[in-house]
Amino acid sequence: MALLEIQNLSKSYPAPVGPDTQVLDVPAFEMDTGSRVAIHGESGSGKTTFLHLVAGILRPDRGTILLEGQDLTQLPESNRDRLRASSIGYVFQTFNLLQGFTCLENVMLGMSFGSGVNESRARELLEKVDLADRLSYRPSQLSVGQQQRVAVARALANKPKLVLADEPTGNLDPKNSRAAIDLIQQLCDEEGSGLMVVSHDLKVVDSFPKQLSWASLNRVISKETRT
């Protein structure tokens, strides 16, 4: 069984005037368990919407999203939230760390929505991302690169089947960008998690064994290209 199977996925947003604006039309997409894939596309082209749909944060207008055979589109919001907490890790572009909490507390809070808080695992993950000496630091006391590593540790806290990363190097310089991508791939390999990264940076995409163009997946982009 595939880890992720998508069929006929479509999403539109209301326009101020006139018909809704379609941003996403993906006929088919599939990922195997433990695989790693990078999707390349320009900023503002619908890649984040795609990740939000896969994570169950948004609901599509139509289509199916099967995570290990379970269709997220048929679940009520509360069930999607529980499935996301237990099976999907998300590295947000802006990290979404809670500013009033320490590094350790941010990772542990991520665990609280899943199978339960495990402080020793939270500490272990932060050690793996080289933040063992920053456990009691708050996000404002960390560099951008360090904040990103906290976000990676939090995404892996519940041993997810699938990790999604939205422009994970968008706020980093070239040197830290490469280190961040290497770290995310390494940790997903160790945990046996599938990894999907979306990025506009070809250097990021080139480091993945499977690379896809967003324009080849999203028929909305393909139509725009033809006109």
3D structure, described in words:
The protein is α/β, with parallel strands linked by helices. The chain has nine helices and nine strands. A five-stranded parallel β-sheet has the order 6-7-8-3-9, sandwiched between helices. A hairpin with a 2-residue loop joins strand 4 (62-67) and strand 5. Helix 3 packs across helix 4 (119-128). It is globular and about 50 Å long.
Characteristic terms for this protein:
globular; Rossmann fold; alpha/beta; 227 residues; single chain; 4-stranded antiparallel sheet; 5-stranded parallel sheet
| CATH hierarchy: architecture | 3-Layer(aba) Sandwich
CATH topology, by name, is Rossmann fold
Please give the count of helices: 9
Strand content: 15-25%
Overall outline: globular
User: Helices and strands: which structural class?
Assistant: alpha/beta
**Number of structural domains:** 1
The CATH superfamily bears the name P-loop containing nucleotide triphosphate hydrolases
| Major beta-sheet overview | 5 strands, parallel
* Main sheet strand line-up: 6-7-8-3-9
